[in-house]
Design brief:
Structural class: mainly alpha
Distance between the termini: 77 Å
Radius of gyration: 22 Å
Oligomer: single chain
Mean pLDDT: 80
Shape: globular
Strand order of the largest sheet: 1-2
Number of helices: 9
Largest sheet: 2 strands, antiparallel
Length: 311
C-alpha cells in the first residue's frame, strides 16, 4: 500500500493536470469572444442587411452557438459541484458539441462544392462526408453518455465537474471530422492545380477561396489531429484538454471563411458595401454556363452574380 506522501503527490499531480483542462476552456471562450468582437463590424456591414437565406442561418448558428456551448463547458468545469447537475449539463454539452461542429463542417463542404461549380461527383463526396460524420456520431452519443462517470460530491467540491471520460468511443467523431477535412483540403488543392496554369491572374473571389481553403483548413486539420492524439495517447486526466479549443477554432475559422468571401464579393461587385449587402443574399449558385469550370458566388436576389473565372 502506498504511503501518505505518495498518495498526496499523486493527488497534486492529477489536480495540476485537471487545471490544464480548465485553463484550456477559459482560453477557448476568451478566443471566441475576441474573434466575435474583432469581426463584428464585418458582420454588421456584410451580413446583417443581407437577404435571409439558408447559408445566413448557418452562419449565425456557427458563429454564436459556440458562445453558448463553450461557455457552458467552462461553467461546468469551474463552478458545478453537484453530481446530478454535473450529469445533466454534461449530457447537454455532449449533444450540442458534435451538432455545432457539424454545422461548421457544412460551411466547409458547401464552399467546396461551390468551388467545383456544383460538380455532381464532388457533391456526392460531400454528402458522403456528411453521412460519415452524422451516422456514427448519432449512434454513439448515447453510448458515450453512458460511459461518463462522475465523482462524488466530496470530490467535486475540490475538482469541480470534470467527469472521467472513456475516449475509446469519442475518437470516432473526431476521426470522421479529420476524414472530411482531409477530403476538403485535397479537393481544394486539386482544383487549384487544375486552374493555376491558365492565362491571367485569378479573380479576388477565387484567390480568397483558395487562400482560406488551404490556409484555414490546414489549421483546422492540425487542431483536429492534435486533439485526436491527445485523446488517444495523453494521460486520461488531460485527454479532453483540446476539445473546447477544437470547437472554438473550428467555429471561428468557418465564420471567417464566409465573411472573407462576402467581403471579396462586395469588393468585386462594383457597388458600395452598403448597396451590395442590401441587394444581396449569402448564397452560392451554380454558374449559368455549363462549360464554366468555376463556381459562381451569387450575392443578389436578382440575376446578378460574380463568376469566379480567369480573365
Amino acid at each position: 500500500m502506498a504511503d501518505l506522501a505518495t498518495l498526496l503527490r499523486d493527488a497534486l499531480w492529477h489536480m495540476d493536470l485537471l487545471q490544464l483542462i480548465k485553463y484550456a476552456g477559459v482560453a477557448s471562450i476568451t478566443y471566441i469572444v475576441l474573434d466575435v468582437v474583432e469581426t463584428f463590424s464585418d458582420e454588421v456591414d456584410l451580413v446583417w442587411p443581407s437577404r435571409l437565406s439558408g447559408m445566413k442561418i448557418i452562419f449565425y448558428i456557427n458563429r454564436y452557438l459556440p458562445v453558448f456551448d463553450v461557455s457552458l463547458g467552462v461553467y461546468i468545469l469551474l463552478w458545478v459541484r453537484q453530481p446530478k447537475l454535473c450529469a445533466v449539463l454534461w449530457d447537454i454539452l455532449v449533444v450540442l458539441y458534435p451538432g455545432g461542429s457539424f454545422v461548421s463542417e457544412v460551411i466547409l463542404m458547401v464552399r467546396t462544392v461551390a468551388l467545383w461549380n456544383f460538380n455532381r461527383i464532388v457533391l456526392g463526396i460531400m454528402v458522403l462526408n456528411g453521412v460519415i460524420i452524422v451516422v456514427p456520431t448519432a449512434s454513439l452519443v448515447p453510448v458515450y453518455i453512458q460511459g461518463l462517470h462522475y465523482p462524488s460530491e466530496d470530490v467535486l467540491e475540490i475538482t469541480r465537474c470534470v467527469p472521467s471520460i472513456s475516449d475509446s468511443i469519442g475518437w470516432v467523431f473526431y476521426m470522421s471530422v479529420i476524414i472530411s477535412e482531409t477530403t476538403v483540403v485535397s479537393l481544394t488543392i486539386l482544383k487549384h492545380h487544375m486552374t493555376r496554369g491558365r492565362d491571367g491572374a485569378l479573380p479576388l473571389l477565387l484567390r480568397t477561396l483558395y487562400r482560406d481553403g488551404m490556409g484555414f483548413y490546414c489549421l483546422m486539420l492540425g487542431i483536429s489531429v492534435a486533439n485526436l492524439l491527445c485523446m488517444l495517447v495523453a494521460p486520461v486526466e488531460i485527454s479532453s484538454a483540446l476539445q473546447l479549443p477544437h470547437r472554438a477554432i473550428h467555429s471561428t475559422l468557418c465564420s471567417r471563411v464566409l465573411l472573407n468571401l462576402r467581403k471579396a464579393a462586395a469588393r468585386s461587385s462594383g457597388h458600395s458595401i452598403q448597396d451590395f449587402t442590401v441587394r444581396s443574399g449569402l448564397v452560392f449558385e451554380q454558374a449559368p454556363d455549363e462549360e464554366l469550370s468555376y463556381p459562381t458566388y451569387c450575392d443578389s436576389a436578382e440575376a446578378e452574380s460574380y463568376e469566379l473565372s480567369s480573365t
